[in-house]
Amino acid sequence: MAVKVHPKSRRAAKKATRTAAVRETRPRSELVIITGLSGSGKASALKAFEDLGYYCVDNLPVDLIPRFAELAVQSLETRRTALVVDIREGSKLEKLPAIVKSVRRMIPTMVIYLEATDASLIRRFSETRRPHPFGADSPVRSSLSAERRRLKPIRAIADWVVDTSKFNVHELRAHLTERFQKESSDKNILVSCVSFGFKHGVPEDADLMFDVRFLPNPHFVPEFRPLTGRDPRVAKYIHSFPQTREFINRISELLIYLLPHYVQEGKSYLTISFGCTGGQHRSVMIAEDVSKHLRKAGYRVKVVHRDS
Predict the structure, then answer these.
(1) For residue range 107-166, what is the model confidence (pLDDT) as tens digits?
(2) Cα(first)–Cα(last) distance of the chain, in Å?
(3) Would 6 be classed as within a structural domain?
(4) Are residues 109 and 253 both part of a single domain?
(5) What value does the CA radius of gyration of the chain take, rounded to a whole number of Å?
């Protein structure tokens, strides 16, 4: 039996279809709130979002965040937005967790919390010769300690905590850019391949550590002693042993297997350390070779030779 559809119903259905199509084509609203410790890279992070096409505001008063989010939802042009809120806001910063909770009801919101070790932050303040926002009357270390305590409730609500100790400005911006580009990727992780010498102590920040002292040592070849593993002659010597080639291939395959799982668990960077006795020959050559394999697999890799 045929069913007749009233003309008004047809018009209503078409209108609903057109509205749905418009909604599909309009860019998705999004708000990113960047916060964290002074000196951790918030300004660089905001510039990265600006380069990605976000409408960015620095040091927006927390009381204006709900209105800012409302305008982002209503605007046809400014729908991807990012802002920085930090300790400069003073006592009003205590309102931020409640404000974020209310804002999330109207727009998808991500809170990014940037931090770094005290040693890294103190070095940055020393290099820039700028005082901590708490003032120049107290030491930077004590100011950072007080700031960490005040920001603890905000760190607790963060969706993504980034330790920027290992990043320079360019690496941080590249890291954020890859994470927030529209195209999703399973390789949004920065891998650091670090060579070191056991006699100088093991790296404190190593996530994975491999001892390569089982390989023949070029130190005992007089002509190689003053050189490093980056020298083609030294690299050729170490590479001439079958256990070297097998080790590099096996470790590279293992890492290429592991890295997507680290990404899936939310890890944004991984430090892989290779150690030999002095950190001059074998560990340097291995770090260089393994990094090439990882780059070929599509990962962002930086190489650090700590002791050479």
Answers:
(1) 999 999 999 999 999 998 888 778 888 876 778 888 899 999 999 999 999 999 999 998
(2) 86
(3) no
(4) no
(5) 26
Q: pLDDT, tens digit, for every residue of 168-225?
A: 888 888 888 877 875 445 676 889 999 999 999 999 889 999 999 999 999 999 999 9
Cβ atoms of residues 280 and 196 within 8 Å: no
Beta strands in the chain (DSSP E): 30-36, 55-58, 80-84, 109-115, 160-163, 190-197, 208-211, 269-276, 300-305
Q: Which residues contact 183 (CB under 8 A, 6 or more apart)?
A: none
SS3 296: helix
Q: Which of 53, 105, 106, 61 is nearest to 82 (CA)?
A: 53
Q: CA 113, 304, 117, 48: dihedral to nearest 10 degrees?
A: -30
**What range does the domain containing 72 cover?**
28-180
Residues 67 and 141 in one domain: yes
What are the backbone angles phi and psi of residue 305, rounded to the nearest 5°? Answer: -105, 100
Q: Does residue 40 sit within a domain?
A: yes
Other C-beta atoms lying within 10 Å of the C-beta of residue 61: 12
Q: Coil, strand, or helix at residue 280?
A: coil
| 3-state SS assignment for residue 67 | helix
As a whole number of angstroms, the distance between CA 110 and CA 220 comes to: 55
Name 158's Cβ contacts closer than 8 Å, sequence gap at least 6: 35, 111, 112, 113
Looking at the structure, tell me whether residues 168 and 90 fall in a common domain: yes
Query: How many domains does the chain contain in total?
Result: 2
Single-letter residue type at 58:
D
Query: CA-to-CA distance for 228 and 106, rounded, in angstroms?
Result: 58
**Is 106 a member of any domain?**
yes
pTM over 0.90: no
Whose structure tokens read 């729908």? 79
Question: CA 134, CA 8: separation in Å to the nearest integer?
Answer: 65
